[in-house]
Amino acid sequence: EDVKDVKKGVAAVKVQVLAKEDTDMDGVYFSIELPASYAGKGSIKMDEGDAQSLHGNLAGLTDKPVSTVSFTAPQQRLTLHFATPVALLLRNETDRNGSHLQLYIPLHQGKLGKGTTVERELTIAASGVIDNAPVLLRIDTAQTGRMFKGFGGNFRLQNARTDPQVIDYCLDNLRVAWSRVEMPWRFWQPQKGDHPVDSARSGKLDPRVKKAMEMAQRLSKKGIPVILSAWSAPSWAIEGAPRSSPGPDGVWGNPLNTGNMQEIYQSITGYISYLKEAYGVEVSLFSFNESDLGINVRQTGEEHAALIKGLGAYMAQHGLKTKMLLGDNSDANSIDFIRPAMEDSATHPYIGAISFHSWRGWEKPLLEKWAAAASRLKRPLIVGEGSIDAQAWGYPAIFEEPRYAREEINLYVRLLNICQPLAILQWQLTSDYSPLAGGGIFGNHAPLHPTQRFWNLKQLGDTPEGLKAMAASADKADISIAALGNNKTHTYAIHMVNNGPSRKAVIKGLPGEVSKLRVFVTDSKRNMEELAPIPVRDGTASFLLTYGAYITLRSR
Questions:
Q1: pTM above the 0.85 mark?
Q2: d(Cα 289, Cα 385) in Å, to the nearest integer?
Q3: Fewer CB under 10 Å: which end of the chain, C or N?
Q4: Diameter of the chain by CA atoms?
Q5: Cα separation of 416 and 431, whole Å?
Q6: 111 and 417 Cβ atoms separated by less than 8 Å
Q7: Is residue 35 within 8 Å of 76, Cβ to Cβ?
Q8: Counting Cβ atoms within 10 Å, is residue 280 exposed (0-12), middle (13-18) or buried (19+)?
Q9: Alpha-carbon distance 130 to 253, whole Å?
């Protein structure tokens, strides 16, 4: 799919499909989900025909091939023009976000033979009334919540050639408050009867384990707390043949071998103990990565609770301060996974924090459940992997698109407001999902340089230390806002993302001690640019919210 800006409000789209094998199917379609406003009071007009309502039965509306189709809703209009006429498919569909209209544009219908290429070209034009009404923002510094230690990162080593440059750049230019590294467990103890600590002490440490431990040491020496997570397990520690992708039954990963739990505890504790002994790293938290899904160790909620009790007690008995990370879920949707441990008070002494990954499950009511779990257990909440598209590695050019950068930081601001996490750990601060471009990463051989995503992360990471979440709200749904502050030092940071048009904003509720606010902006054209400070009078300040911008206000 190739999309080019033609002019304001108009894009040219070219879609091409290549069949690498003979493919038996109904067809291939380019699909557009229409905004909800079109379904209720909208209309459709095809070529020179009359406008017809989109409310109710859609049968027969799009039977004939057309060159142009226009959708009109109150204050909005969407027009598609096709290079060659095409018969469209328009359907009412429902998903978890509710009902909507879905338009399907055929690229090809019927079987595709091996080597066949089909393509379609169209232009999409959007117009409407822009809502430039001022935005009212409010903060309440009297309502304080949990501490935000800051932005962090994952440092799972996967690309020996390109990882080092990205890691160096990020650690030199970002304030990294928390970190997460891998425990390459299957290389630490390949056989059940091995004695990995003795082997390590005698200089027989697997190179992959050595590099992972050195990564943890580098972070620890910078004063950055370390989470240790295991992705895969040695074959003796699991049931069945190891698998890193779903089987025919659609199930991922392998359960731990319950007959070897004492050996499992001993192996993991030995790794953490040796990391402390030889590298000076006191691991803060331990987890199996995404064990709710099975990437690659799979557990039920009950098994997860049992592991917390068993391994947690074993580590404590052997003098380690390392606690267990509750959850470390693949996304926010699977919150039921942590309930057995929450309901079992015997797990609580060994739980150091709660964690989920932010790939999916962004609805406010769901995120509020994670915040409530942290409050109930009186434990910090950590976003163990932060980003928005778990498959983005498959089309890495998206990392440099302004929309992707904005949606990623928009989610982080919402997480700050709703979940009040201790830290958000970017996936990753290596060349995998890199916030940098060039340097050979994903085939880009330009000089290494920061992208818009990097500047978003830096702006978030520069939040002053020692601030707690504070209540914040906006009277427009397309503005995300989060406030952090310290009422003793009168230090405040207010993060916001404007997903709508440029317009004036008024913020109320600022303390009387604040007379000016520094302004930082990152968007497609500005990299954490500091603008002129804005004055504050009687707790109120006014400023311009520019389109698509991530804006941070900080007290001087």
A1: yes
A2: 10
A3: N
A4: 84
A5: 26
A6: no
A7: yes
A8: exposed
A9: 49
